[in-house]
Each structure stands twice: as C-alpha cells, then as structure tokens.
Design brief:
By secondary structure, this protein is an alpha+beta fold. It has a single domain, classed as Nuclear Transport Factor 2, Chain: A. The protein has 1 helix and 4 strands. The chain has one helix at residues 70-82, and strands at 9-21, 25-36, 41-52, 58-67. The chain has a 4-stranded antiparallel β-sheet with strand order 1-2-3-4, with no helix packed on it. A hairpin with a 3-residue loop joins strand 1 (9-21) and strand 2 (25-36). The radius of gyration is 16 Å and the shape is flat.
Length: 83
C-alpha cells in the first residue's frame, strides 16, 4: 500500500468514439475523468483495444492512458502523423 495515497478513485467517461476494424475488432478513444476521494479531478485520454463477442458483448484486451496536456498531445499527434 502506498503511503498517503488512497485507492478510492472513481472514473467517468466524458466522451468516446469507437473505430471498428477487421471482423470484430475495435479501438475506443475516450476522454475520461478520475475523481479521488477528496474530489480532486484529473482528465486524461484513454485508448482501448477490444473485440465484440458473437453475443455482441464488448471485451477489452489492452488500454493506455495519456495525459491531457496540450504540449504532450501535440507531440503525440505529430509523431503519429509522421509514421
């Protein structure tokens, strides 16, 4: 357990977009907010990869959270565009 830290964090999805590819795969890009027990909020971008089962349920395989910082996001977009 980390000293001075609590595990009571609530997450809210503010907006999301889904990009489908292949037979049943998708990438979900979402803007989310983490709210700690003191009410402090931090927004971030979540990128998740998943698939849809035959029954139509969404299953997630991997996730990455990116800081919602203008300098970082500009650098990230330029890097993706240059590939």
């Amino acid at each position: 357990m980390r000293s001075g830290k609590s595990n009571n964090v609530r997450f809210e999805t503010l907006s999301s977009e889904e990009i489908k590819f292949g037979k049943n795969n998708f990438i979900e890009v979402a803007r989310k907010k983490a709210i700690d027990e003191n009410g402090e909020e931090r927004e971030f971008v979540s990128i998740s990869r998943g698939y849809t089962t035959l029954e139509g349920a969404k299953k997630y395989k991997a996730n990455i959270a990116l800081p919602l910082d203008d300098e970082f996001m500009n650098k990230f977009k330029k890097t993706i565009a240059s590939l």
